[in-house]
Amino acid sequence: MRYLRIAESMFRCRPILLIFDVTRRCNQRCRMCNIWREQSEDMGVDEIRIMAERLRDMGMGYVFLQGGEPTLRPDLIGIVDAFLACGIKPTVITNGILLRGDLPEQLAARPCNVAVSLDSMNPDIFKLIRGVDAFAKVTGNIREAAKIRKRRGNWSVTSTITAVSTLKDIQAVESFAADCGFMYAIRPYIHVSGAAGKRDDALAYGDTVPIVQIFEYMRDRARTSNYLASVVYDEHIRYIRREPQPMCDALTRSIVMSPKGDFAPCIEFTGDASPLDDMYSKKAAWLRRCAECNRNTPCFYNDAREIGILWRKKRHLALAFPRIVMQLIKYGNFF
Known about the structure:
By secondary structure, this protein is an alpha/beta fold. It has a single domain, classed as Aldolase class I (TIM Barrel, Alpha-Beta Barrel). 45% of the residues lie in helices and 12% in strands. The chain has 14 helices and 8 strands. Strands 6-5-4-3-2-1-7-8 form an 8-stranded mixed sheet, sandwiched between helices. The longest helix has 17 residues, at 209-225. The two termini are 14 Å apart.
């Protein structure tokens, strides 16, 4: 039933992915982020449950629970369960500092994906990027979580590639993730208006050749270990080379919900978030604004690109279906 709902939404160009900032509070001070500087007015679980039911009825199938840092909320499991009860599959995107105690076991017992951010195996680089000296905590928590043998969702380690990233260091993170039985993925450092991704001169790309080489390495590796990611990496490479980008997924495949329950097409527009009905009453104007943003300052936020990329490649992916299924069996079904 859930997959039929998602398929109908895809064919009707309705969002299937909700990006939910469950809180703007954070226990890191990343140089590339402005979110932790903001105040946060967070909905309770009962309010979230009501919103999840409405979003399910609109055809939503997936939700990214992010922030800020979602594990700062003691009711995170209640939030996960609220979406699961509505047939909306959650992915918890966390910095890993508080991924400890019984929280990993509770998440692993549910069909819930978990993505832990780890940008470097060098503690000094970690601190430079994330603004806190928490490398040992994060890697220790990942190792402990790796001892959980039965995980119903897909668990991954993810790295943001910045100007201080090197291929050797990324290979070290990849090896660490593999040793823990986690999938590994990378993404480009994004900065547009500063609403979500803040430009930092120490991290922004200058010479893009070394950065492209990192993505080419990951693309080639992913063709045998994470085929869907390899397709996305091809687009990452085009983006980093500043090649023209197709229209993004904002409002047609994904939307964003603020901690207090307002909506916007993309995380770049959260300053203009409004009630859901108001956003849709202005859909035509929003789509024009998204198109202008895509022309002038194209980004590569995960929520704004990946669904459209995979949808346009659906015939190509159908040929690789057996390979993709084997990867889902190995790492857990992220769908």
